[in-house]
Amino acid sequence: MKEINMKYGQGTMKAYFEEKNLLEIIESNVFRQDKTEDEIISEALYNPIGSERLKDIVNEGETVCIVISDITRSWQKPHKFLYKIVEELNEGGVRDEEIIFLCAQGTHRKQTGEEHKILLGEELSKRFEVHDHDSFDEDSMVYLGDTTYGTPVIINKKAVECDHVVITGAIIYHFLVGWSGGKKSILPGIASFKTISLNHSLSLKEGLGSGTRESVCSGNIVENPIHDDMMQAAAMVKPTFMFNVIMGPDGNIAGAVSGDYITAHEAGRKLVDSIDGVNIEKKSDIVIASAGGSPKDINLYQSIKTLINAKEAVVDGGTIIVLAECSEGIGEIKDINDMILNFDNMLDREKDLRENYTISKYVGYFFCETGEKYKLILVSEIDPDLLKNTKIIVTKTLEEALEIAYKNQNKNLTINLMPHGATTLPKLALK
Fold first, then answer.
1. Are 256 and 246 contacting, i.e. CB atoms less than 8 angstroms apart?
2. What's the whole-model pTM score?
3. What is the fold, at CATH topology level, of the domain defined by 2-28+277-428?
C-alpha cells in the first residue's frame, strides 16, 4: 500500500491506496535561479523583446500612463520594479509631473492610501499619487470601437489621453484567458463593467444550455475568444511598452519580460510553462488534488484554481477529489453563493449567468457544471447543506472519498496525485 499525505488547511490529510494504481505525482518542475530579483528586473528592462528600450521610445514633454495591478496582486512585488520603470522614463526626458499611475482595478474595490504605498514603495509614493480605475464610472471613460465579437471597448480616459501607455503586472496561468498579464492590464484592467462582462461572457458557448467553452481554460489561447477579444481591445489602446514578472515556486520573482506587449508576453508564457506546466503521460481515472493548504483552501471560491487544474489530469467523466478545508465556507462574495444556493438545475444557473455575468458567478457555475460532468468529491469542512442543490459530494476524510470513488468500480482504477493543485497545470504529453 502507498500512503498519500497532502496539505489540508493548517495540517495534512492522509489515506492509503494500491501503489500499482498510481500513474504520476504531478509536481512543479525543478527551477533554479542564480540571479537576484533586482538583476532579473534590470536585465529585462535593458533587453526588451521586439522593442527598443523604454528610455529610447519616449521623448521630453510626452505624457505616460503606467498601468499597475491592484493590492490583490501585491505578490507581484511591484515596488521592486516600478521605480526602475520611472528611472527609464526620466532618462528618456519624461518628468515626474508627466507620469500618471493608473491602477487596473477591473471590477475590484477602490484602495486606501496605505495600499497605494505598498504598491509603489516608499520612495515613489512620496512622488506620485495613484488613480484607481472605476469600471462603473462611464464619465471617466471613452469608447474606442467594437471588437469582432461585438464587445464595445470602453477604456479609462487617463490612459487613452496620454502619449504612451506602459502596462505592468505578472504572467501566471488564468482559467479564462489562458495566461494573465499583458493585455489584461487593458481589459479587464481599465475597461468599463459593460466591456468586462461582455468579454468574460465569451466563456460560454452560444445558445442557452450549451455550457462552457472547452477552449477557455488555463494555459490555452488557441481558439480562445476571451483572449482574442482582449487582444483586439488592447490593439485599440496600443500600449507602448510592457513589463511583466514571472514568479517562482518560492514566491520570489523568477523571471521578467519587457518590450512589445505581444512578443514579450509570448516569451513570458513560455517561462511560466517551464516552471508550472507539467507534462503528464496519461490522464487517470481518479485525480486527487490538494489546494496546498491554507490560505489557498480557505473557502470554495479560492479553491477554483485547484479544480480547474485537476480537470486536466483526469479522463472525461472520471473522479476528481479536491482537498480544500473551506474553513470560511463558500466565501463572502454574494454572486458565487447565489449561483450555488439559489438554483437546483444547470439550465437556470446558466440563464442567470448569461443575463448578469460576473467572475464570481462563473466560478460557482463551473463548480456545479464539473459536478455534473465528473464525480466531484470535496474533502472539506464545508457544510454539505450549502451544496445540496449540486451534485458535488462532500466528505470529511480522504479515506472516505476514496471509498466513494471505488464503490461499484474496478479496484484497479488509476490515480494521479497533485500535492500543489492550485499552482501546477498538467499538460498531456504529445506522442
1. yes
2. 0.89
3. 2-enoyl-CoA Hydratase; Chain A, domain 1 (3.90.226)
